[in-house]
């Protein structure tokens, strides 16, 4: 069964005349008639009854028409999708972003990317690092922006974007505002807002235990907006990546002794062919003027 044969049958069914159908399909009548007979042979039953020069649809042919039309419609839709894909028009691109990454600077990058690649449809979803890792491996997302660690570097292709320090965030008029930088020892006994989603949380807590720093968590949350809101309300201070602080009015100082930093990178699956849209995203991420 060939696409040309299906088109011949549909045209003949519309005109109930092989001559008109041949003219519409831009082929000779013998060629069209031969194609119709070949398709009938493949289907195993006549699509038309011939009565001299007159043709009529058989009951079998009438039942086949919707299916044949569907084949033609699907083929046309596929061609349009393929053309759009080549031209980077309406190409879906799925980006996963670690939930703790600051959205303000990331939004600037995505806005510039969209402006330069207006035909690409981009979806962004937030998740934890383990969830993003699974989605990337399973092909549910095309790329992920996450914090670099050894396990991810060993499993995925890594393109580093920027690094950022951890800072101590506190409300206005807090005593820490008198300092240029804050060490862990200076935080011992301070009221604390615990960011449960922080990927470096366990490391910081371990250092606190080693140094004998006691932190009393007055509030715990996995949501960045709630953490910052509670800090602003005076509940306590919080550790945050410097580019994730978005709430106006919050004060921040660099965390020292120890200095804590994280590296943000774009991760893709090695050996998995990039779509044109993903290639465009990777190029843009390399050339963008990231902070730091």
Automatic annotation (TrEMBL):
<dbReference type="GO" id="GO:0003677">
    <property type="term" value="F:DNA binding"/>
</dbReference>
<dbReference type="InterPro" id="IPR036388">
    <property type="entry name" value="WH-like_DNA-bd_sf"/>
</dbReference>
<keyword id="KW-0238">DNA-binding</keyword>
<feature type="domain" description="HTH lysR-type">
    <location>
        <begin position="1"/>
        <end position="58"/>
    </location>
</feature>
<dbReference type="Pfam" id="PF00126">
    <property type="entry name" value="HTH_1"/>
</dbReference>
<dbReference type="InterPro" id="IPR005119">
    <property type="entry name" value="LysR_subst-bd"/>
</dbReference>
<protein>
    <submittedName>
        <fullName>DNA-binding transcriptional regulator, LysR family</fullName>
    </submittedName>
</protein>
<keyword id="KW-0804">Transcription</keyword>
<keyword id="KW-0805">Transcription regulation</keyword>
<comment type="similarity">
    <text>Belongs to the LysR transcriptional regulatory family.</text>
</comment>
<dbReference type="Pfam" id="PF03466">
    <property type="entry name" value="LysR_substrate"/>
</dbReference>
<dbReference type="InterPro" id="IPR036390">
    <property type="entry name" value="WH_DNA-bd_sf"/>
</dbReference>
<dbReference type="InterPro" id="IPR000847">
    <property type="entry name" value="LysR_HTH_N"/>
</dbReference>
<dbReference type="GO" id="GO:0032993">
    <property type="term" value="C:protein-DNA complex"/>
</dbReference>
<dbReference type="GO" id="GO:0003700">
    <property type="term" value="F:DNA-binding transcription factor activity"/>
</dbReference>
């Amino acid at each position: 069964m060939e696409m040309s044969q299906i088109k011949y049958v549909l045209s003949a069914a519309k005109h109930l005349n092989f001559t008109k159908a041949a003219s519409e399909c831009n082929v000779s009548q013998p060629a069209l008639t031969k194609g119709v007979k070949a398709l009938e042979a493949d289907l195993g039953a006549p699509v038309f009854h011939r009565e001299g020069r007159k043709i009529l649809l058989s009951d079998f042919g009438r039942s086949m028409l919707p299916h044949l039309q569907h084949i033609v419609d699907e083929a046309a839709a596929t061609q349009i999708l393929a053309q759009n894909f080549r031209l980077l028009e309406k190409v879906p691109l799925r980006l996963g972003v670690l939930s703790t990454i600051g959205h303000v600077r990331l939004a600037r990058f995505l806005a510039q990317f969209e402006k330069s690649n207006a035909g690409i449809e981009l979806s962004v979803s937030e998740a934890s690092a383990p969830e993003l890792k699974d989605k990337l491996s399973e092909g549910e997302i095309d790329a992920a922006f996450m914090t670099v660690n050894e396990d991810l570097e060993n499993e995925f292709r890594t393109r580093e974007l920027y690094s950022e320090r951890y800072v101590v965030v506190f409300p206005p008029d807090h005593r820490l505002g008198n300092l240029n930088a804050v060490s862990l020892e200076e935080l011992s006994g301070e009221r604390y807002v615990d960011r449960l989603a922080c990927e470096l949380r366990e490391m910081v807590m371990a250092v606190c235990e080693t140094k004998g720093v006691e932190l009393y968590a007055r509030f715990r949350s996995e949501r960045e907006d709630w953490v910052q809101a509670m800090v602003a309300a005076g509940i306590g201070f919080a550790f945050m990546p410097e580019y994730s602080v978005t709430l106006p009015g919050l004060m921040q100082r660099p965390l020292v002794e120890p200095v804590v930093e994280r590296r943000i990178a774009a991760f893709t699956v090695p050996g998995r062919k990039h779509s044109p849209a993903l290639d465009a995203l990777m190029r843009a991420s390399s050339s963008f003027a990231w902070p730091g």
